Amino acid sequence: MEIKEIDMRGQICPSTFITALREINLNKNEIKSETLKLVFITDNRDSTVTIPETAENMGYGTTVTKEEHHYRIEIFAARQ
Amino acid sequence: MTFSGEWITGLTSLVIGCLAGLVMHRSDFCMAGMMRDLFLFRRYTMLKVLMLLVLVNMILTEGFRLYGWIELFPYPAFGPPALSNLLGGALFGFGMVLAGGCVAGTLYKMGSGNVISMFAFIGLLIGSTLYAEFHGAWKAFSDATVFTPGKITLAQLLGVSQGAAVLGALVILGIPVLYWWKTGAFVRRSYAAGYLQPWKAALIIALLVAISVIIIGVPLGITTSYAKFGSWFMSLVLPEHVRELAYFSTMPFRYANPLLEISYSGGPGPGYDGIALIQYPLIFGLVSGGLISSASLGEFRIYFKVPLPQLASGLLGGVLMGLAARMAPSCNIWHLLGGLPILVMQSMLFGIGLLPGAWLGGKFLSGIVLKNN
What we know:
The structure holds two protein chains of two kinds.
Chain A: E1 2-7, H1 15-26, H2 28-32, E2 36-42, H3 47-57, E3 60-67, E4 70-77
Parallel strand pairs in A: 1-2
Antiparallel strand pairs in A: 2-4, 3-4
Chain B: H1 3-27, H2 31-40, H3 45-67, H4 83-99, H5 103-111, H6 115-130, H7 135-144, H8 154-158, H9 162-182, H10 198-215, H11 224-237, H12 239-244, E1 253-257, E2 262-266, H13 274-296, H14 308-327, H15 332-339, H16 345-369
Antiparallel strand pairs in B: 1-2
Helix pairs in contact in B: 1-5, 1-10, 1-13, 2-3, 2-16, 3-9, 3-10, 4-14, 4-16, 5-6, 5-13, 6-11, 6-14, 15-16
């Protein structure tokens, strides 16, 4: 599976969320067919609320993990 | 001012600022985001939390007032409503969305290492100082557009007691707040380390504002000191110009604090006065709170690789917020957390103005600043 990683650290709020929405919509077929996983690297704490909540409402699976000084948010097909 | 009174005032501001900064960082209590997300993403949770905060502060301050702990009422520095409150609120709403945080959000985010908030802070200083160039004309406009001369609160306008007006507001606000409480609408699911539920933050901040009113006599306020710092900086390079600008000689902040038995007087001009005593420690505290919270979580980090349009947005948003905070006058913290709970009409107008400003700011941010992100 291909992994598309987008580094959003230091960016203005709500840049991370808007970019996440855009990337999900642009790549929905690839994500749903399990050929692509989106990964967002962010230091915006609020994104750990908004992105998983919205992605799950859209039918995707998500995980959030803390890595050193930032967070890693993964979006993938719900069946995974 | 007495020495002990000064120390108690400064320390109270510092502790309140530090706790507020810490709590705001832990709960992502971003008031710019509350307004922006209402229009941009139709998300209301944080706005509901803000209503909870206003409601709780309303109960606390009215209780303390009736108990005799709040002697200065309405709080000093509030005035009758004018068109300038509405227009200032709208410009402020636009600016805070562009800056990615309000005057308090900018401080705690700056403390956590956010570079855009540092640009917004510089913008705030520039905007607050720029206002001095047209203060005379704006003050004349503001005075000419006062809606209810001599009447500051809704209770004064309606000719009813403050208790009756607050009771009415509590019923109107209380019904939806109770419903949201019962349905769990205040709870957010977050994966952030050390996350503090925003409703808990709202309760703490409501209490901090009430403590500020009891001890210092006024709610939390920040923005006059931005103009003060700007005028001090300008006095280093253009001392003659600072002396020429009438705004920097005004002393709009003047009252006696019966609890601490001291009198404060202050204004936007350079130099140490009551504004510096109350607001500088609050600002320092808010930045420190953000720093302590982020550092203790291992999240303090300065990322310099930020897209230029976002840096420009932060700076421009700060300039507009600074200007608006002088034009309104004052900021969202002063009006929404201080004036609104005691039904000050200029705070209501400021709050109404924030909404179209935040809507337009959201359009500008998503359509221009983040278009090619």
